[in-house]
Amino acid sequence: MYAGGPPWDIGAPQPAFAALAQTGAMRGRVLDIGCGTGEHTLLAAAHGLDATGIDLADGALRMAESKAQERGLTARFLRLDALRVADLGESFDTALDSLVLHAFTPADRAAYLDGLRSVLRPGGRLLLLCYSNLHTAEPDVPHKLSREDLESAFADGWALDFVQAAVSASNIHADGVTAWLAVCTRL
User: Fold this and answer.
1) How far apart are CA 30 and CA 51, in angstroms?
2) Does domain 15-186 bear CATH number 3.40.50.720?
3) pLDDT tens-digit profile of 67-81?
């Protein structure tokens, strides 16, 4: 699908998430949605947290498990559709969404966030990185969201704690992709 791997698979956590991890924003049981090769799940595990990553890509999940073994970290990786996260039947304190939300249609976004609310404890937090409509560099990226899109998506059942401009590191965009970094609390 992508020559050299998907643009977002940089072989390390996104710098914006790594910075949030240093502030203690990740806590308790952590769910990494669309974990890919596991960098954010393993970031949480490296901070001593109970970390679970979900994804649909079997190959990416195998790579994630291999990385966990190589790094001596304990993390759980499950094959699960992000739109079916409620099927986990578990509760988490923190959820990580690196470049997942923006890929959904508005209707699927609402269903995704409803499912996510069902597995996040009240007061649990979602750490979110998504492509911004302010990105203008080539090559362009799909599924860009505006700040208003985020405010609308989190208007019901969530507190949007902050939204700030950020950069999503990319293996094909030398300067990264203009993004939004948000922290949302489940009400």
Assistant:
1) 5
2) no
3) 999 999 999 999 999
Q: Is 163 within 8 Å of 180 (Cβ atoms)?
A: yes
Alpha-carbon span 126 to 161, nearest angstrom: 10
Q: Which two tokens stand for residue 153?
A: 């998506």
Per-domain residue ranges of the chain: 15-186
How many H-runs (helices) and E-runs (strands) does the chain carry? 5, 7
Q: How far apart are CA 58 and CA 55, in angstroms?
A: 8
d(CA 38, CA 30): 12
Tokens representing residue 139 in the block: 């090559």
Give residue-wise pLDDT tens across range 51-68: 999 999 999 999 999 999
**Is-contact 112 141, C-beta < 8 A?**
no
**Whether the predicted model's global pTM rises above the 0.90 cut:** yes
CA angle, residues 154, 170, 179, in degrees to nearest 5: 25
Distances in whole angstroms, Cα of residue 61 to Cα of each of 35, 41, 64: 8, 11, 5
Q: Report which of 55, 142, 63, 128 is spatially closest to residue 98, judged by C-alpha positions.
A: 128
CA separation (Å) from 51 to 6, 24, 77? Answer: 23, 15, 9
Low-confidence ranges of the chain (pLDDT < 50): 1-3
The per-residue pLDDT for 1 is 40
pLDDT at residue 5 in the model: 64
